[in-house]
Amino acid sequence: MRLNKSTGHAIRILIECARSDGRLVKVADLAERLELTMQNVFKIVHLLSRADLIAAERGRNGGVGLARSADEIRMGDIVRAMEATDMGVETAALRAGARKSAVNGVNRVLDTALDAFVAVLDQHTLADMAGSNKAKMGAATPVARERKSPQSKSARSVSRARPTARSSGN
Questions:
Q1: pLDDT per residue over 150-159, tens digit each?
Q2: Domains (ranges, CATH) in the chain?
Q3: pTM of this prediction?
């Protein structure tokens, strides 16, 4: 079975996130490292986010990271999120004059083959793909998302204020 390019890109994006030591990864950095367009990365990240594989944080300090630990993400989860499972045999075959029972038989065979393929992928995790060395896999933990209270926001703005440099011209 052959996977589409977007699935391969999605796996590479998730591996980059797994190797990020729990830090958010900028989409622009992913696009540059993986030699993909920003539009492609955004599209893939959106699909992975909808499948609860990636957590995205907007804003200047935002980025993407794993929504779950790398050892909890099965390769089959990624394929199911990215691949269209409808083989489209029914429409084309019926237009060509095939009997509906023959089409249903083909769909059953293809569905069984797809299920077997994904079952093999489910035996492997993103952590396996990113590298089995735990020291290398410090990023196997999901990105922590913290809620900011209004007090912490004002405290941050005070701490970010730059001290004015005054020279003592005596």
A1: 444 434 444 3
A2: 5-145 (1.10.10.10)
A3: 0.67
